[in-house]
Amino acid sequence: MNQEKTAAAAKPAATPLDAKQAHVKATWKHGSPLIACRYDPKGRFLFTSGEDYSLQRWDLATGKPTVWAAHESWIRDIAFMADGETAISVGCDDKMIFWATAAEKPTPLKTIEAHKGWIRAVEVSPDGKMIATGGNDNLVKLWNADGSLQKELTGHDSNVYSIFFHPGGEFLLSGDLAGKVHQWELSTGKLVRTFDAKDLHTYNGGQKVHYGGVRSIALSPDGKHLACCGLHKATNPLGAVNEPLVMLFEWESGKKVRSQVAAGVKGILWQVNWLADGTLAAASGGSGGGFLIFWKTGADKEFHKLKLPNTARDADLHPNGLELATVHHDRQVRITRLTAKPTPDKPKPKK
Amino acid sequence: MKCDYACLSGEHEIGRRQFLGGLAGGVGAVAGGLGMMASPAAAKQLSKDQKRVVVIYMSGGLSQLESWDPKPKTKTGGPFRAIPTSVPGVHISELLPLTAQHMDKLSIVRGINTKNGDHGKGSYQMQYGRDKRPGIQLPNLGAVCAKALESPTNPLPGHIRIPGGGRGNDAAYLGPRYASIGINGKPPANSARVTSLTEGADQARNAFRRKANSRFDRQRRTAQTDAYTYSYEQAQELMKQRDVFDVSKEPAADHERYGKHDFGKHCLMARRLLENGITFVQLSHSNYDTHNENFNFHLEQLGEFDRSYAALVSDLHDRGMLDSTLIIVMSEFGRTPNINKYYGRDHWGTAWSVCLAGGKLQRGAVVGKTNAGGTAVIEDEVDHGHLFHTYLSAVGLDSSDTFDIGGRPIPLADPRRAPISKILS
User: Closest approach of chain B CAs to the CA of A174, in angstroms?
Assistant: First the structure.
C-alpha cells in the first residue's frame, strides 16, 4: 500500500498533523480476531481480514461492515489497484483473489493460485500496472494488472514477509524472515543490491527456531530513508519475549543509519508508515500490549507512543494522512486520529 | 539394589517369564563376555523376533490441530488446511504432506485427556504411564522396554536417547543396566581404545579383571557386583561395535532423503540402531511450546519433522521391520484450541492426539474423536495410562504383568488402566 503512503505524504493536511495528539476516535467490532487492514485509495472504505477467513469492508462514513467470504484460510494482506476500484486479497490458502471494491454483494472477480504455500504480502505498483506478491515458497512474483504472471524473482532463501514498490517505478523491495531486503530492478528482474536487516532476525539455538523477519518496509516522503520494521532482543521467541525495532537505512548508500527502539515496550512492529511531516509511525503488538509508536528520523528513541487497549496486529494510514487504522486480537478495528481532539462545543448558558 | 543371592540364582534380578529369554545366558555368562551368550542359530531367530520401539518426543507440546486432528474452517482451526491421506476419509494437517502418504501404516489416537497442562508432569505422564507421586520412582517406557524386550544375543545397550549425553536416571528399580544412554549421532565418547595402549596389553588387563571378578563373585556376589561386571563387558562390546553409532557410515543418498539437519540425522541414526538390534531409541524434536506465533513455528518445525519421519516409517516398512517395531510420536500435551493474542496456542491436556505406527497396531486406524472445535473428547477418551499399556501390548507384552522386584510383584503399567483394544490388531 505504498502508493497511499506516498500520496499521504504529498498531500498537505487541512488540519495540523500532530502525532502527540493522537487519540482513538472510532472503534468497530467484528465477530473474530482480526489480522490485516488496508484503506482503499479513495478513502471510502477500510478493508480488514479475520481469523474466520473472511474479508470485511467497513464503510468509513457509517462504520457499517460488509463481510466477504471466498478464501479457504486466513487473509494475510490486502492491496488495491491504483484507481481503487479493484481490491486484492492474498492468504494462507495460496490464493490471490480480485474483488470489485464497491460492489454491493461482492463475489470474487478472479482467483489465482499464486504461490505454493502462504502468500504473506501483496502490493500494487504506483502506476497500477503491476502487482507483486511474496510468500512461503521464498519467491517474489510480479503479475500484470490482469492477473497474468510476468516474472518470478528468485533470490530469497527464507520466507518472503514484505513487499514494497519504490515510488520511482524502477525498483521493488522484498524483505524476508532472515532479515534480507532485496532490491530488484523491475524491468529486468535482476537483483540490484541487498539491505542487511539481519538485526530483525533471531535464531534461538535452545528452542531451535528462526524468528523475526522484515514485517514491513516504507520509504520516507523525501526518498532519503528506507525503514524496515520487526523485532529484536528475542530472548524467548516461543514466549513472545522480544522488543520492537525499526532499522533505518540511507537509500542512496544502503547503509544503516540507526536502530529505532521504543522504551519499555515488549512486542513486535507489524507495520510502518511515514507521515507527511517525516514522522515514522508504527503499530506494535505483543506481550507489552498494543501501541502506536512515533519517531523522528534523527533520533533512536521514540518521541511519543499511544497505548492502545489491545495488542495490534496491523495498521494502515488513511489517504488523508491524518488517521491510522489498526486491527486487534480483541476483534476491534480502531481508528486513531493524528490531530488534536476537536474542541467540544461550549454548553449554552441556561436562561 | 542389593539382592540376597544365597540361592545363587539370577531370577531375583530378572523378573518373570517373559523376560527369562532376555537373560537366557544369565548373569553367569557375563564373566566370560557377552559374546558367549547364545548360539548363532538362536541369535538369528531371536533377531527376527526381536521387538523394538522408537519414540519421537515432540518437546514442548505439539499442536494436535496443526498435526493429527486438524479443524479447518472453525473458530479454533487456524490457517492451515486438512489434506487427504493414503487412507480414504482420514485427513491430517497440510503441514504433513509426506507423512500423509504413509497414513496406511499409521494409527492415530485422537481422544487423549491427560487432565494436565504442566510440562514436567505431562512429560512424566507420557514417558512413565502414570502420574508422578512423591517418593515413588518408576522406570520409564525406555527402561521397561529395554528390559522386557532385551535380546540376549545383542550386547549393545538397549536404551538409547538421541540427542543427549551420559547415563539417564530413568530405570528406577530395574537398575542402571536399563537406564538410557545419551548419544549425539557419533560413537560414544571414549569408546575407542587409547592409542598408547596396545591390543595385547588391553586383552591381558581385561583377562585379569575377569579373573579377579570371578574370584570375588564366588563369595560376595550381589546385584551391584553383577551390574559392575556387566557394565565393563557392555563397554567392551560397545567398543568393538562403536561404528553402529556412527551415522556417517550411512549412504549419502539416505542423508539427503532424511534431511541434513540434526533431526534428519537422528532419525537415520535411529534406523541404524534399530537395524543393529538396539531395543529402544528415543529421539526428540524441538521445540513446539508455541505460546507465540504458533503457526509460523509449526510451519518451520513440522517441515523438518515431516520429511525425516516419513523417511523412517517408509524405510522400516520397506525393510520388513514395521511389524516388529513400534513408532510413537508423543508430546507432554497438546495445545489449546483457542488462539491467543500472539497467534499462539497454550498448554492443553484436555483433548489431544498421538500418532503410532507398527507392531501389533491396526494400520490406518483412527481411534477417539474430539468435538468440532477440538475443545473436548467425545468418543473413546483415554489417558497416558491407557497409552502406556497400548505401547507394551503393541510389542507383544502382557501389559498387566509384573516385574518381580525383591520378591514383590510390581506392575509394568498402571493396573487401573488397560490397553486401547480398538487400536490393537
Answer: 19
Closest CA to A172 of A149, A191, A154: A191
Query: Chain A residues with CB inside 8 Å of B293's CB?
Result: 211, 237, 240
Question: Is a pLDDT exceeding 50 seen at residue B12?
Answer: no
The more confident residue out of A346 and B354 is B354
Whether the per-residue pLDDT at B135 is higher than 60: the answer is: yes
User: Residues A16-23: what's their mean pLDDT?
Assistant: 96
**Contact between B141 and B123 (Cβ < 8 Å):** no
Contact in structure between A47 and A37 (CB atoms under 8 Å): yes
Of B79, B286, B299, the CB nearest to A208: B286
For each of the domains in chain A, give its residue range(s) and CATH number, in order of start. Answer: 2-337 (2.130.10.10)
Q: Which of B79, B287, B293 sits opposite A73 (nearest CB)?
A: B79
* DSSP β-ladder status, A312-317 and A304-308: unpaired
Residue B227 has a pLDDT of: 72
User: CA nearest B290 in A: which residue?
Assistant: A238
Which residues lie across from A23 on neighbouring strands?
Answer: A337
Check if the beta carbon of residue A159 is closer than 8 Å to that of residue A135: yes
Contact status, residue B271 vs residue B312, Cβ threshold 8 Å: yes
Which residues in chain A are contacts of B289 at CB distance < 8 A?
Answer: 207, 238-239
The chain A residues in contact with chain B (CB within 8 A) are: 32-33, 51-53, 72-74, 91-93, 118, 136, 206-211, 237-240, 285-287, 310-311, 329-330
Angle between helices B199-220 and B223-240 (to 10 degrees): 160
On the question of pLDDT at B106 being above 50, the answer is yes
Closest Cα in chain B, distance from residue A253 (Å): 33
Residues listed for chain B:
425
- Check if the beta carbon of residue B30 is closer than 8 Å to that of residue B233: yes
Q: Is B13 exposed, middle or buried (0-12, 13-18, 19+ CB in 10 A)?
A: buried
Distance CA A5, CA A1 (A): 7
What are chain B's domains?
A: 11-423 (3.40.720)
What is the DSSP track for A88-124? EEEETTSEEEEEETT-SS---SEEEE-SSS-EEEEEE
Task: Tell me if A92 and B290 make a contact (CB, 8 A cut-off).
Answer: no
Query: What ipTM was estimated for this complex?
Result: 0.93
A285: nearest CA in chain B? Answer: B342
Q: pLDDT digits over A80-100, tens only?
A: 999 999 999 999 999 999 999
Chain-centroid distance of CA A312 in Å reads: 12
> Across A289-298, B6-15, B146-155, B208-217, which has the greatest mean pLDDT?
A289-298
By C-alpha distance, which of B59, B97, B38 is closest to B290?
Answer: B59
- Angle at alpha carbon of residue A312, lines to A306 and A317, rounded to 5°: 75
Q: Which residue has the cell 536404551?
A: B159
The whole-number pLDDT of residue A131 equals 98
Share of chain A above pLDDT 90, in %: 91
Residue carrying the nine cell digits 553383577: B226
Residue B40's pLDDT band, with cuts at 50, 70 and 90, is very low
Total number of residues shown for chain A: 351
The Cα–Cα gap between A317 and A336 comes to 10
Residue A78 CB neighbour total at 10 angstroms: 26
Count of C-beta atoms within a 10 Å radius of residue A11: 13
* Three cell numbers written together for A250: 540511507
Which is nearest to A176 in space by CA: A210, A151, A206, A146?
A210
Return the sign of the alpha-carbon dihedral for residues B14, B19, B22, B25: positive
- A–B interface: beta-carbon pairs under 8 A: 67
* Three-class DSSP labels, A27-53: EEECCCCEEEEEECCCCCEEEEEECCC
Q: Which residues contact A102 (CB under 8 A, 6 or more apart)?
A: A44, A45, A85
Crossing angle of the two packed helices B141-148 and B384-394, in degrees rounded to 10: 20
